[in-house]
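Hey L., structure's done. Input below.
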Amino acid sequence: MRMEQSVRTWFRWISYLEAISFLVLLGIAMPLKYMFDSPEAVAVTGGIHGFLFSVYLVAIAVMAVLFKWKIIRIAGAVLAAFLPFGPFVLERRLKANA
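Output:
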């Protein structure tokens, strides 16, 4: 039981970090690039977000195996990563179903 709780906590943190990095990319870095001709912001933020996105996908795989997620939940978790506030909504639903 303790390991499962640790994995849930790890997944929650990864979800939040991935979502925040996506929001920073969309809300800060992209406007800096196109409004102020500063592509460096996207290069740095995009790299960080790409790494966190990859870790998030691994975290989904771990959660799916450990908690025997159905394919629809896995698909929803992956889809959530493509929506600006998706991981926050997913976490809220997972917490409600726990």
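Residues 2-36 form the longest helix (35 residues). The chain has four helices and no strands.

-- N.
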